[in-house]
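Reviewer comment 2.1 asked that we show a complete input and output for one of the modelled complexes. We chose the adenosine-3',5'-cyclic-monophosphate case, as it is the one discussed in the main text.
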Amino acid sequence: MSERTLILIKPDGVERRIVGEVISRIERKGLEIVAMDLRTLDRETAGQHYAEHEGKPFYPDLVDFITSGPLVAIVAEGENAVAAWRQLAGATDPVKAAPGSIRADFATVMNRNIVHGSDSPENGIREAKIFFPDL
Ligand code: CMP
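Response of the prediction step:
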């Protein structure tokens, strides 16, 4: 079934100049990019996006980091888009991510793991609306 997922190339990915690499992998997988924008998040939007993590020990660092510089927000669409992107991204912890995945290839620690992806089709729709209300 066709789904949407919100993809973020986080500030570490932009700073390290791997935006093109990540977009290329999205395209090669066969997902369709239906929205894309380079922007720096304010703390309120970051809080909405990461609402489920509020109160966790890593939350303050997470919000500081995700608002620290420009990121690229992308909505990708296609059959099994959520699982397909999670496979490309790899596990949250880069040292546990499958070899060849983005996090395995480009990161070493969980709190600087290059990309984000929605964890369910429902969250894909919710998160896409936060970043692209008019989509
Ligand atoms: P992301 O997919 O963006 O969703 C929440 C983020 O919080 C996650 O990627 C990690 O970057 C970060 N994160 C999750 N768990 C931890 C943790 N235990 N310690 C530090 N950061 C974490």
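The pocket of adenosine-3',5'-cyclic-monophosphate is lined by residues 53, 58, 62, 92, 110-111, 113, 116 (CB under 6 Å). We note this here for comparison with the apo prediction described in Section 3.2.
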